[in-house]
Each structure stands twice: as structure tokens, then as C-alpha cells.
Amino acid sequence: MAEHTASPSRSAPPKGPLAWIGQVLLYALFAVAIGVFSHWPRYHPLAPGEAVIKVSFIHTGKPVGDCRPLTKEELARLPPNMRTPTICPRERSPVTLQLVLDGRTVLERSALPSGLHKDGASAMYTRLVVPAGEQRIGVRVSDDVRAKGPTYEREARVNLVPGQVLVIDFDPTQGGVTLQ
Q1: What CATH number should be reported for the domain whose range is 50-64+92-179?
Q2: pLDDT of residue 2
Q3: Contacts of 66 (CB under 8 A, 6+ apart)
Q4: CA distances from 81 to 7, 68, 72, 124 (A)
Q5: Which residues are paired to 122 by β-bridges?
Q6: The whole model's pTM is what?
Q7: pLDDT by residue (tens digit) across 157-175?
Q8: d(CA 105, CA 150)
């Protein structure tokens, strides 16, 4: 039978003042590197005299069609638990947005409804860099394919200072288009 001899355990060498000084120097070097790279090179997201307009919203459009009553024959073909007197389309209208600055159209975009049956919300996010200064802004939103023209409109005069971010949102509970 073989005997196993226990190997001598290794103990960590005691930490002397030289090890502590080395550790402090490495931490200081790391802190200096973070400090240098947090201020250099300079980053300017916008050129002087520019501002940003962000269009950001999620909105569910109106249904693409009206509800209609089912005939007696159609009701008879349905299982008893699904016999509702009317049927409504699930599909929603896309949400279209038009942004006009000082009389010229700078953005015209349409957001399709999400979901497998196109019955979810439409989402839109756009970032525009514009010159700072006083601007006449017009926003037109349409969320109903059955309506002629926009269903929501907002016109305003805004004074954009350099570096400012103007957010265009859509909230039907607050009257539609909001500028923040």
C-alpha cells in the first residue's frame, strides 16, 4: 500500500511596504488614464449654431374599417360561444407625420402598425439637426386612412437656442401633438 505524503502548504508571502506602494501606484495610474480620456478628445454632438428636433411617439391608429352587423346565416355558421352581433376589423391605420419648418417640408414619414395582424401601435423616432434660431414649425399627423387630410395639427413659433433639443411627441389625451 502506498502512502501519500502531504505536500507542504504554500503560504502567501507577507505583503511589505513595497507591495503596497506598487498597488497604490497602479491605482493612481488607472485613475489618471480615466481622467485623461474623460476630457480628451473633446466631443461636440452639434456644430455651433445648431439645434435638434426629435420626433418620438408610439400611437395606435384608428381601425381601417367600420364594424358591421352579421347576418343570421353568418351567425348560424359560428360556434355558440363566438356569436357576437357585430364584427369589427382588427387592422389599424398607419400613422403618418409631416413636419414643416418655415414653409418647407423637412420630414414626411409613415409608421406601419405592429403585430401579426397589423393591429398594434405604430412607433416613430427621428432625429433632425436644424439651424438654431426662431422657427415656424408645423406638425400634421394622420392616424385614420378613412379621413381626408390630417386628423391632428399643431403650428407654433419656437426659438431654438444652440444645442437645444426640441421633442415632438403625440398624446391624444393632451390634444394630439405636443412640443417639449
Answers
A1: 2.60.40
A2: 57
A3: 88
A4: 79, 19, 15, 38
A5: 59
A6: 0.71
A7: 999 999 999 999 988 888 8
A8: 15
